[in-house]
Amino acid sequence: PLADRGVGEGHHAELMAGAGEAGCADCHDLPQAPLRRTVSFTECSTCHGNHAIVIGASISGLLAARVLSAHFDRVTVFDRDALPSASGNRRAVPQGHHGHGLLASGLRGLKTLVPGVERDLLEAGAVPGDVIGSIRWFQHGSYKARFASDLEGVLLSRPLLEWTLRRRVMRLPNVRVIDHSRVIGLRVDHGVVGGVRVQQQSE
User: Which of 186, 184, 182, 162 is nearest to 80 (CA)?
Assistant: First the structure.
């Protein structure tokens, strides 16, 4: 069940997750939360259906949500940050200012999980290239040999990658991403994790 009718600064909700009967209409039909908006949950005594929860809307969390969306009726992703509405750095990702790249295997995996993501990245300015032939690798005091490897990757910024993935994942009809929401604990019953306790952060 969900506890605390309103979720605001200093309050929390308990959100249940797990396999079972479908959640009730009151909770199942909560509108998609727009970014930079607070969320209020209504009380619901039977909201424990086929629902998965992901803590963190970073790259791994978004990809986890994508995989879970094929196996659960609903997937909710909580993140404590104010998620930017465009490509931009955020507080919880300090390494976002560094240059980033996707090597061949990583790019192939993303394309399998999130079709169309490579096109989105390239259209937004990511630079494609051979990860050996197009780049000079300096390691252990010397430059590595360059040759055509046919291993294609892309150079890009971390914020661009995360933002592009988030847009794609949020288009999935059964995935909801809620920002300004800190997970402060797990709901455990008889040694089994059945949900999370969430505290709404202030703007």
Answer: 182
